[in-house]
Amino acid sequence: MSLSQDKKDHYGIRPTESDDNFNHLKQFDSDTMKLAEMGYTQDMKRNYSVLSVLGVGFSLTNSWFGISAALITGISSGGPILIVYGIILIALVSTCVGISLSELASAYPNAGGQYFWANELAPKKYANFASYLTGWFAWAGSIFTSASVSIAVGTAGVGCWQLSHDPDFTFKPWNIFVGYQVVNAFAFLFNCYGKVLPKIAHTTLYTSLVSFLVILIVVPAKAPSHQDAHFVFANFVNETGWKQSGIAFIVGLVNTNWAFACLDCATHLAEEVARPEKMIPIAIMGTVAIGFVTSWFFSLSMFFSIQELQDLFDTSTGVPILALFYQALTSKAGAIALESLIMATGVGCLIASHTWQSRLCWSFARDNGLPFSKTLAKVHPKLDVPLQAHFVSCVLVAILGCLYLGSYTAFN
Questions:
Q1: Four-point Cα dihedral 162, 164, 165, 171, nearest 10
Q2: Per residue in 311-368, pLDDT tens?
Q3: In 274-386, which ranges are continuous DSSP H helix?
Q4: Closest by CA position to 24, among listed 55, 2, 8, 45
Q5: Which of 160, 169, 172, 321 could bridge across to 68 with cysteines, CB 3.0–4.6 Å?
Q6: Average pLDDT, whole number, for the chain?
Q7: Is the CB of residue 412 less than 8 Å from the CB of residue 254?
C-alpha cells in the first residue's frame, strides 16, 4: 500500500535534504508509513533504543527477582529441586513463547500487541470478539501484575522493619497495605514524563544486573557452611498439604512461571522505537536469555547457602529470601542491605509494569475497546505519555490493593 503526498503530510512525513539526517528520517518515514498502513498515526515519539526496550522488558520480567519474591511458593511445593529444574522447564517454554511473540511483533509492529494480532489473524466472523476479549484480558493481566509486584516490594519493606526491631513484633495486614500503596504511588511518578523513560529503563536494567551480581557473590561467600549437591539437585519438599508430589510440583511451578511472565511487554513499545520489526524480537529473546542465566545461577547460589530450610518456612518476617540472607550473613544490617537491593530491583520492575499497563490501556482505548476511550486514548502533547491511561491504570492497582485488607486469600 502506498500513500499519497497528502497522506504523508497528514502523518507528519517530510522529505529532507540533510545528508546527516537522511538515513534516520528515512527510517522514521518507513516506520510511520508502516503504522499508517495499519490505520494509525504516529502519536508518540520514537525515543527508545533496543537497549532501553530490553531494559523495560527485562526489568518487568526480571526472572531472578521473581524467584526471590515468590520463593515461599517454590520451596514449599517442591523445594530446591523444583526451582532448579523448573527454571529450565519454564525457560524452554518461554523460548517458544518468545519466538512466537517475536514473529508476530516483526510482522505487525503495533502497540496493541496481542489484541491487534487477534483482530488481524482470527477468522473475520470472530475477529472483533477475539480482539476485544484479548484486549481486556491483557490489560487486566497488567493490572494484576502491578499489584503482585507492589505487594512483593511492600512485604519486603515490612519484613525488613520486623527484622530490625523487636522479634516479637507481628505485622498486621494494614502495614503491608500501606507499603503497597506507597510503592505504587512512588512508581507512578516515573512514567509521567516520556523523554526520561528510556534513561530510566537503562537505570533499572543495570540496577537489576548489579544487584544480582552483588547478591550472587556475597551470600555464598559469607555463608558459614554450604549444602551438598544432593540437597540442591535432588531434595524434594512437599509442605502444601497435597499427598501427591506431582500436584505439589505443578503448584510450585507458579514460582518459576512468574519469573518468566510478561514477555509481551516489549511488543507494546513498538511505536516508540525505530525499526520495531527488528528491535522488538531482540528485546524479547534477550529478556528470556538474560532471565534464564540470572534466575538459574541465583537459585543455585541461594540454595547452596541455606543453613536451615525449615527456618525459611517459619520466618517471622514473612520474607523467606530475607531470612536466607540473615542465615548466611548472620547480620541484620547485612541482610537488610541485600534485601534493599531486591526492593530497588522490584521498584524498577513496577515502573516497567506501569509502562506496560499504560500502553495497553492507551492502545486499546485508541481502538474504542474501553469506556471513556476518547479520554484514555489521548497522549499528553508535552509529556509525550498517555497520562490519563497511566493514571487510571495505577488507580485500579491502588483499588485492587484494598482487597488485601479484607482477605489475603481473595487478594492472592
A1: -10
A2: 888 888 889 899 999 999 999 999 999 999 999 999 999 999 999 999 999 999 999 9
A3: 276-305, 309-314, 320-329, 332-366, 373-376
A4: 45
A5: 321
A6: 88
A7: no
User: For residues 163 and 337, what is the distance between their CA atoms, to the nearest angstrom?
Assistant: 12
Cβ atoms 216, 301 nearer than 8 A: yes
Instruction: Write out the DSSP string of 16-47.
Output: ---HHHHHHHHHHHHHHHHHHHTT----S---
Residue carrying the nine cell digits 527488528: 278
Round to whole Å and give the CA distance between 265 and 97. Answer: 13
Region of 386 (left: φ > 0; alpha: ψ -120 to 50; beta: rest) is beta
pLDDT tens for 298-315 read 999 999 999 988 888 888
Q: Look at residue 14 in the predicted model and tell me its pLDDT.
A: 40
Please answer whether residues 108 and 83 qualify as being in contact, where contact means their C-beta atoms are separated by less than 8 angstroms: no
**The dihedral formed by the CA atoms of 401, 370, 131 and 31, expressed in degrees to the nearest 10:** -100
Residue 108: CB atoms within 10 Å: 20
Q: Tell me: the pLDDT tens digits for 213-263? A: 999 999 999 999 999 999 999 988 887 778 788 888 888 888 888 889 899
C-alpha cell at 187: 512508581
Q: For residues 68 and 263, what is the distance between their CA atoms, to the nearest angstrom? A: 19
Q: List Cβ neighbours of 135 (8 Å cut-off, separation of 6 or more).
A: 112, 114, 115, 360, 364, 367, 369
* Per-residue b or e along 263-300, where b marks 16 or more CB atoms closer than 10 Å to that residue's CB: bbbbbbbbbbbbebbebbbbbbbbbbebbbebbbebbb
pLDDT tens-digit map of 166-192? 677 777 888 899 999 999 999 999 999
CB-CB neighbours of 99 under 10 Å: 14
Q: Is 306 helix (H, G, I), strand (E, B) or coil?
A: coil
- In the chain, the amino acid numbered 409 is T
> Which amino acid would we find at residue 246?
G
C-beta contacts of 23-31 below 8 A and 24+ residues apart: 24/274, 27/274, 27/275, 28/274, 31/109, 31/274, 31/275, 31/276
Amino acid identity of residue 348, one-letter, is G
pLDDT digits (tens, 9 = 90+) for 24-33: 445 557 888 8
Task: DSSP letter for 48, please.
Answer: B
> Pick from 30, 117, 389: which is nearest to 11 by CA?
30
The C-alpha angle with vertex 194 and arms to 190 and 198, in degrees rounded to 5, equals 80
Task: Give 226-270 as a DSSP string.
Answer: ---HHHHHH--EE-SS-S-HHHHHHHHHHHHHHTT--GGGGGGGT
